[in-house]
Model the fold of this input.
Amino acid sequence: MDFYTVLSERGIVSVNGVRIPVTLLVARCPYRYIMVVEETPEMIEGRIQHAVIESLLRERGWETEVKLELTLQDPPATIVGKIDAVNHDNHLIVEIKSGKRLYGEYVMQLEIYRWMWYRLHGQVYDGEIWFVRNGRVEYRIRPWLRDPQAMEPIVVSRLRQLLDQLNTPESLCVRNEYCFLCPLYRRCPATRRG
Done:
């Protein structure tokens, strides 16, 4: 499928403007994020784990799957995302992961959600990343997080870079240590460049 068709079908680019998911902003390889539309078994398992934990949290008064949408004027784009869980009593935002390792992308995703929350609600919430398996939280990490106000120039810079790259799909391909796992590996411009 054509790159620009995928952008349109996934709602990233439309007549209403550009909508950038937070997960695309933090993606190690934005090209893979955009072009791989089929779910892997790991993704399906992750969705199941999320549903179980989020159900338990809702029973305890947490808000789950909190949708955020923040429109910026410069650059002109809307950033969209979905926080896994929010505890308003403890001012806590939680990102749930079903993997076993902490990646920088997870921390950045949490930081962007905290920044968006601050921009939309004027409140600073703490953040944690919870690793889940078999329907329970195995461990929690409270990483060092920047002040939400300090995130704005970082997010805007990354957003500008990403918007520029949408005009040349090859520039979205980022060679990294996980390329060999990607279903696009054999036809990816980054792996063909050598």
Summary: The longest helix spans residues 41-59.
